[in-house]
Write a structure and sequence with these properties.
The complex is a heterodimer of chains A (104) and B (274). Chain A has 104 residues and is mainly alpha-helical. Chain A has one domain. Chain A is elongated, with a radius of gyration of 19 Å. Chain A starts with a helix and ends with a helix. With 274 residues, chain B is mainly alpha-helical. Chain B has one domain. Chain B has a two-stranded antiparallel sheet with strand order 1-2. Chain B starts with a helix and ends with a helix. The chains are: A mainly alpha (104), B mainly alpha (274). Chains A and B meet through helix 1, helix 2 and helix 3 of A and helix 1, helix 3, helix 4, helix 8 and helix 9 of B.
Chain lengths: 104, 274
């Protein structure tokens, strides 16, 4: 279990670092180029790209806990003591997924 | 988009993350009122932004605590069931509730957090006196290099409080640590260090659930959220390192006064006076 929890923690960290890097790169580019929404027409197209990069990084930051909990849940299903909690949480996550799909 | 505007948001996140970490209440307590009052964002938009920042910073903290084996993963998974459900319901409710109700709730949560900071209750865990309590189990966790035994009490009744904590977290955008930590420490008898680390683990998932609901409904402002989140992450790092030099406990009472003032400001905004 210890090895698996370490893997979960490490995977969350890597995704967080990727998210931070992308978000920071996007934001720095937006700030460095100034008001890219309209003041500098030549940079307007790049402005949209920078915004997309920052948004992608933000999505990685939001979803990073999901990767960790999925790894933990997968490993918990293999452990007798943790199995009930993992099954209950799996049911909740399925309900959550249904709610998210329903809200689209 | 004005770079000064983005830098201002980054600074708000930085200050909120630093102070929230030093006082152990999380950055959301400061981010939500700052965004609603200084930047005139709606309570829903501010809550969505705050939840993204909390999800990122608590994931970072939780991954550290999990690798250090301080988190009680089994307890966390049990409490995650009602808190995630509460979080999803809270975020869905927030999309359909009038703003003044959210601001009143925010004021109530801030007043509670302020009182919690003044009282700062902490109970050292002890063996259960009531052997009839069902579902109690022993857990061994390494704290400061020493293995300590503790028993988790009242797991069933704690589920309801966990659900309320999750709902309030998504409704107001404040993490929920001020509810989860005393719940685990005082009511369930879990040591403080394990309570705070397990709370980080729970909050990372509940905040993510709430943030996703807001994001998918188009309430989240991505660029604003990116600036605040980067600031909160940097602030959490600064705060965790400055706790060695700053006695946060001594300053808690002063900061709680600030929380009460912000609660009054939120109430004034709810009444349309600001």
């Amino acid at each position: 279990m210890r090895t698996r929890t370490s893997i979960a923690a490490q995977s969350v960290l890597y995704i967080l670092y990727a998210g931070i890097s992308l978000t920071a790169a996007g934001m720095l580019a937006i700030i460095a180029t100034g008001d890219v929404d309209g003041s500098f027409p030549l940079l307007a197209a790049w402005g949209a790209t920078f915004t997309t990069v920052a948004e992608l990084g933000l999505l990685l930051l939001i979803l990073s806990p999901l990767v960790g909990v999925a790894t933990l849940m997968g490993s918990s299903l293999l452990e007798k003591d943790y199995r009930h909690a993992a099954v209950a949480f799996l049911v909740v996550m399925l309900v959550a997924l249904a709610m998210l799909l329903g809200s689209l | 988009m004005d770079p000064g505007f983005l830098l201002g948001l980054f600074l708000i996140g930085l200050v909120a993350g630093t102070i929230g970490t030093i006082f152990g209440v999380g950055g959301g307590v400061m981010v939500v009122p700052a965004l609603t009052i200084l930047y005139s964002l709606t309570a829903q938009e501010a809550a969505a932004i705050s939840l993204v920042g909390i999800a990122a910073s608590s994931s970072y903290a939780a991954s550290y605590f999990i690798s250090e084996e301080v988190v009680n993963i089994r307890l966390g998974m049990i409490l995650l069931v009602p808190t995630v459900m509460g979080s999803l319901i809270g975020a869905s409710l927030a999309l359909n509730v009038q703003e003044w109700i959210l601001l009143c709730l925010l004021a109530a949560v801030m007043t509670y957090s302020g009182l919690y900071m003044i009282r700062n209750p902490e109970r050292l865990s002890s063996p259960p006196r009531d052997s009839r309590v069902k579902m109690t189990y022993r857990n061994r966790t390494e704290i400061g290099g020493v293995y300590r035994e503790y028993t988790v009490n009242h797991p069933h009744s704690s589920l309801a409080v966990g659900g309320i904590s999750g709902a309030l977290s998504s409704l107001t955008g404040i993490g929920g640590g001020s509810i989860n930590v005393p719940l685990m420490n005082i009511w369930m008898g879990v040591p403080m260090k394990v309570s705070t680390s397990t709370s980080s683990f729970i909050i990372s998932i509940t905040s993510m659930s709430g943030a996703l609901i807001y994001y998918l409904n188009g309430v989240l402002l991505p660029i604003v959220a990116a600036s605040v989140t980067l600031g909160m992450l940097a602030g959490s790092y600064l705060g965790s390192h400055s706790t060695r030099y700053i006695n946060g406990y001594a300053l808690r009472r002063h900061f709680s006064v600030f929380m009460f003032v912000m609660a009054v400001v939120a109430l004034l905004k709810a009444g349309g006076y600001l």
